[in-house]
């Protein structure tokens, strides 16, 4: 209370010019403190790797069967909402929408290989788009008449998680557009995959 009174008295006795300078310095200090708080939190505010199920694998093909209650205990809220509740992420928010890196896209829920980067293209729809999956077994298609529309839903062929929809307005050679929610995709660069393969082969050979 004493400090507040002294501060007020100081302002009242200060001429207009000095008071203006004081206020400008105070505002600059608050602004600098705000920036420090924002940027200072960035390292700890970075998104953590999404939790993975024990069955998560890039090579295993056995079907993964879990109830939504079990999935909810494992997956992040955003992945669970899209993958298990058939939600949709906001358009133009996926880190993979404009990605041009070479590699493989996997199901973020179970690790099943879904799409190769050479099948990816810029559709402008707001979500990562592909003209074909890795193979016929990597995905499952089903009729979707929700929201008053007739669409073809695309699901993971291993865990049946919702991925997005497929449309017939894509480029050659298939003429298809697999419009996929980026949040349900994992990506591994080709060089990373090759390095892991070579490391594993070296370990098996004992050389």
Automatic annotation (TrEMBL):
The record's remark on the cofactor is: Binds 1 zinc ion per subunit. The zinc ion is important for the structural integrity of the protein.
Q: Which cofactor does it need?
A: Zn(2+)
What residues bind Zn(2+), as annotated? 107, 110, 156, 159
Q: Which domain of life is it from?
A: Bacteria
SUPFAM superfamilies for this protein = Mss4-like
Tell me the keywords, alphabetical order: Metal-binding, Oxidoreductase, Zinc
Tell me where in this chain the MsrB domain is found: 68-190
Query: What residues sit in the active site?
Result: 179
**One of this protein's Pfam families, by short name?**
SelR
InterPro entries in the record = Met_Sox_Rdtase_MsrB (IPR028427), Met_Sox_Rdtase_MsrB_dom (IPR002579), Mss4-like_sf (IPR011057)
Instruction: Give the start-end ranges of region Disordered.
Output: 44-68
Q: Which reaction does it catalyse?
A: L-methionyl-[protein] + [thioredoxin]-disulfide + H2O = L-methionyl-(R)-S-oxide-[protein] + [thioredoxin]-dithiol
Q: What is its EC number?
A: 1.8.4.12
Protein family: Belongs to the MsrB Met sulfoxide reductase family.
List the PANTHER family hit by this protein, alphabetically: METHIONINE SULFOXIDE REDUCTASE, METHIONINE-R-SULFOXIDE REDUCTASE B1
* Protein name (Swiss-Prot/TrEMBL): Peptide methionine sulfoxide reductase MsrB
Species per Swiss-Prot/TrEMBL record:
Dyadobacter endophyticus
């Amino acid at each position: 209370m004493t400090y507040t009174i002294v501060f007020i008295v100081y302002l009242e006795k200060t001429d207009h010019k000095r008071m203006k300078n004081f206020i400008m310095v105070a505002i600059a200090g608050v602004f600098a403190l705000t920036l420090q708080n924002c940027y200072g939190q960035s390292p700890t505010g970075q998104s953590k790797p999404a939790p993975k199920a024990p069955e998560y694998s890039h090579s295993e093909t056995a079907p993964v069967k879990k109830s939504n209650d079990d999935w909810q205990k494992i997956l992040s809220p955003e992945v669970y909402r899209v993958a298990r509740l058939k939600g949709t992420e906001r358009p133009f928010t996926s880190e993979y929408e404009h990605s041009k890196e070479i590699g493989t896209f996997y199901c973020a829920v179970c690790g099943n290989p879904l799409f190769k980067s050479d099948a990816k293209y810029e559709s402008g729809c707001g979500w990562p788009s592909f003209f074909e999956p890795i193979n016929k077994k990597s995905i499952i298609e089903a009729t979707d008449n929700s929201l008053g529309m007739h669409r073809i839903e695309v699901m993971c062929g291993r865990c049946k998680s919702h991925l997005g929809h497929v449309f017939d307005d894509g480029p050659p050679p298939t003429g298809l557009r697999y419009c996929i929610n980026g949040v349900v995709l994992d990506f591994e660069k080709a060089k990373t995959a090759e390095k892991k393969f070579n490391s594993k082969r070296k370990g098996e050979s004992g050389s």
